[in-house]
Structures are given as structure tokens and as C-alpha cells.
Amino acid sequence: MDRKDLILHDNANNELQKILYKDAKKIGKY
């Protein structure tokens, strides 16, 4: 994995975390 892929992967991960966090908030777990 080169550095660019790593950064892209990291960004995707952050987006996923944001989405999961939003959903969790809706459900009322956090």
C-alpha cells in the first residue's frame, strides 16, 4: 500500500465513522 492509498483509506474510514456516529445518535446510543 503506498502513501496515497493509505490516506484515501483513512479518509474513507473517517467518513464511515461519521456516518456510523450519526446513525448511533439517531438511535440514541451515544
Structure description:
The mean pLDDT is about 85. The chain has about 30 residues and is mainly alpha-helical. The protein is built from one helix and no strands. It is rod-shaped, with a radius of gyration of 13 Å. It has one helix at about 5-25. The chain has one domain (about 1-30).
Strand content: under 5%
**Residue-averaged pLDDT, rounded?**
85
| Low-pLDDT sequence parts | none
Distance between the termini: 34 Å
Question: Characteristics of this structure?
Answer:
30 residues; mainly alpha; 83% helix
Concise overview:
The chain has 30 residues and is mainly α. It is 83% helix and 0% strand. It has one helix and no strands.
SSE layout:
Blueprint: H1 3-27
